[in-house]
Design goal:
By secondary structure, the chain is mainly α. 58% of the residues lie in helices and 4% in strands. It has one domain (1-165). The chain has helices at residues 22-30, 32-49, 67-76, 79-93, 97-113, 121-128, 135-148, 160-165; strands at residues 51-53, 61-63. Strand 1 and strand 2 form a beta hairpin. The longest helix has 18 residues, at 32-49.
Length: 167
């Protein structure tokens, strides 16, 4: 069977690749070597997208030195958005929810605040945000997106009355 770099418990575009089982996920999590390889694969993909993992403990990210060129690639080829969604889901499966939060916030900042990735904005809002497993963290990110979305009245990813009262 073909393997995936970021396997999930669901079918992807490669119909020959079989989904992960819960037992396989548990076995992966128990293997220090597998988890180290997983983090290396994550760092490799981040570098491809022009992003650096600056803290393995927290999952904190920053733009890489080659970010301008790599962001042009992200803006130009929308198939990257599917891969990023897959990576985000896999991070959640493997117990790296805190990495998910940093990656989604990174893309929300780049799309809504810095406006460097206009062609990634819809995916960040429609898909990336909703890969976050923690309801509290997801709410925080929806609120962050709402704060920076223009025009705010067109924001459809959360009820405005609740977003206004959010603390």
């Amino acid at each position: 069977f073909p393997f995936r770099l970021f396997p999930l418990r669901e079918h992807g575009m490669n119909l020959r690749a079989r989904p992960l089982t819960c037992q396989e996920i548990q076995a992966f999590k128990k293997s220090k070597e597998v988890m180290q390889r997983f983090i290396r694969a994550y760092q490799l993909m981040l570098r491809f997208y022009g992003i650096n993992l600056i803290n393995e403990e927290t999952g904190e990210l920053k733009r890489a030195e080659n970010w301008v060129k790599r962001f042009q690639n992200l803006n130009r080829f929308s198939h990257n958005n599917l891969r990023i969604t897959r990576i985000l889901k896999c991070l959640g499966e493997m117990g790296y929810e805190h990495y998910q939060v940093h990656l989604v916030k990174f893309f929300l900042t780049e799309t809504l605040v810095k406006e460097t990735l206009p062609n990634v904005k819809r995916s960040a809002l429609d898909y990336f945000l909703f890969t976050i497993r923690s309801k509290r963290k997801r709410r925080e990110l929806v609120h962050y997106a709402w704060q920076h979305f223009k025009p705010r009245g067109s924001f459809v990813w959360g009820p405005h009355d609740k977003l206004l009262k959010y603390r």
